[in-house]
């Protein structure tokens, strides 16, 4: 099994690359989806988050009120660190379970871990390759505002809450420049797949 970490800042085009690699045959393990799964209604993780940040972050239906939690942690590094200390260990366990499941199903599987917080949480894991999706901060902020409808300030807070591009690029084995056209991004993803699948 080949284990590839795919990371990038918010709105860097990471999901586009992951979808293309999935079309080519990669097994995608999505860290954001795992986060949602491990903090589902009734989960120990959600209970711990409620204890740490207050009952008001639990919605009436028992699910996490993401907007309420986001208001408490974005722009507040110490609160974000507190949240990560609750969530990251559970994500690590569940992601490893999914890696093992993919390997058991196909010993030659290419598993791509789509993980925004690689530098913050998982950089020292034994990856076969670290791929960084990269677009300049100004372009990512524009995408958040124009494509996701985020207010300018909220977009900047989301970007500021992540590590710098410099730190992300410093760990990259492969950088996919997503600042051009969609076709250019997909062509780079295809080239990456050729490299992985023939090695």
UniProtKB/TrEMBL annotation:
GO terms for molecular function: dephospho-CoA kinase activity. Gene3D superfamilies: P-loop containing nucleotide triphosphate hydrolases. Pathway: Cofactor biosynthesis; coenzyme A biosynthesis; CoA from (R)-pantothenate: step 5/5. The keyword Cytoplasm applies. It is found in: Cytoplasm. It is an enzyme of class 2 (transferase). It catalyses: 3'-dephospho-CoA + ATP = ADP + CoA + H(+). The keyword Glycosyltransferase does not apply. Belongs to the CoaE family. Catalyzes the phosphorylation of the 3'-hydroxyl group of dephosphocoenzyme A to form coenzyme A. This is Dephospho-CoA kinase. The lineage of its organism: Bacteria, Bacillati, Actinomycetota, Actinomycetes, Micrococcales.
């Amino acid at each position: 099994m080949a284990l590839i970490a795919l990371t990038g800042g918010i709105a860097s085009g990471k999901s586009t690359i992951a979808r293309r690699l999935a079309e080519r045959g990669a097994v995608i393990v999505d860290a954001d989806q795992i986060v949602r799964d491990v903090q589902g209604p009734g989960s120990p993780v959600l209970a711990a988050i409620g204890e740490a940040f207050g009952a008001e972050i639990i919605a009436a239906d028992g699910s996490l009120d993401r907007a309420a939690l986001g208001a408490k942690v974005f722009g507040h590094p110490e609160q974000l660190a507190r949240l990560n200390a609750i969530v990251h260990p559970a994500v690590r366990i569940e992601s490893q379970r999914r890696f093992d499941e993919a390997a058991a199903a196909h010993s030659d599987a290419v598993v791509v871990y789509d993980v925004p917080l690689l530098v913050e949480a998982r950089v020292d894991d034994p990856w076969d390759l670290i791929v960084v999706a990269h677009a300049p901060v100004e372009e990512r902020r524009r995408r958040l505002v124009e494509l996701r409808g985020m207010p300018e300030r909220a977009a900047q807070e989301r970007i500021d809450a992540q590590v710098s591009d410099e730190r992300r690029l410093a760990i990259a084995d492969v950088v996919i420049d997503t600042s051009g056209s969609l076709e250019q991004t997909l062509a780079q993803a295809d080239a990456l797949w050729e490299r992985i699948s023939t090695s």
